[in-house]
Amino acid sequence: MKEFDNVKLEKGMYRLSDKTFSQALEDQDPSDRYENTPYAGLDAYQRQLKRFDIKVTGQSSDKIEKFFRTTDSAALFPEYVSRAIRQGMTESTILPRLTAAMTKIDSMEYRSITCDQDESYANYGQILEGTFIPQTKISLNETPVQLAKRGRMLVASYEAIKFQKLDVFTVTLKQIGAYIAKAQLKDAADTLTGAGATAAAVLETKLSGVVSADDLISLWGAFSDFDLNTILASPVMAAKIIAVCSPAGGSDRDFFLTGSAVKPMGAALLKSDALDNNTAVALDKRFALEMVSAGDVTVDYDKLIDCQFEKATVTSIAGFAKIFPAAVKVLKLKA
Length: 335
What we know:
The chain is α/β, with parallel strands linked by helices. The protein has 10 helices and 12 strands.
């Protein structure tokens, strides 16, 4: 028996404070019931798409109007929008390659921890009785993490889009997700380069507008308790770093053949216009940055269900904090 056929769908499932729409579906229709059945591997939402025979991908994908043929199936549309946008965010972002921890909260205020290594104990010898024990001081940041809402307003009449194929519409939603991810990456870059008590040490190139091998070696040498394993740079700065790391008198073969960037001192080189053309950020990805998210991607479910689009907002709230400030260094081109 397909028990998911009997699940009652309503927009009130989006209003639950302690769970998402998908989690509410799982409560009514647990996935473990379907082990060793044709529906194994599908989550509760995907089973609802099967129930109403709605295909959202591939050449045989349905049109948007199919979601709105019944009141129950219309309740699935906001989750489709949310999932497509999350997919776009996931596919487009390099944030997981920069963050040491990702924290989800259910409020609009969060204080991260910061950690300071005791540098006064330079001797790594045995700790004898009565002698000083090196400390790592863990404390709450004095100011809360600055959470920023990022998103887009979807504007379209139902009549204009109801015959649009879902796989093509998904591409549009994924692009919105990519925009949100890019905005959040800018917030992360601002945190890494930010001033204040957790400001990163800044190294300046020796020659104006030029990055040399000596500059990169100095950047690597600036890390003592941490390792340089990730560099985030603007496209212009990344190109200069690649040029420095290319074999003498030639170009990097793998970069031209595969697009895989060179690894300066073994560090992953990531490029983003979230930084200005004079800046690169070096970090130990394991210890530098925490990403804080307040909830999941949020959509105007009422408008998407009752008004069949017209205008609806899609938002995501997130912020960033440095955990070990010493795990971040900034390289600046000399003016």
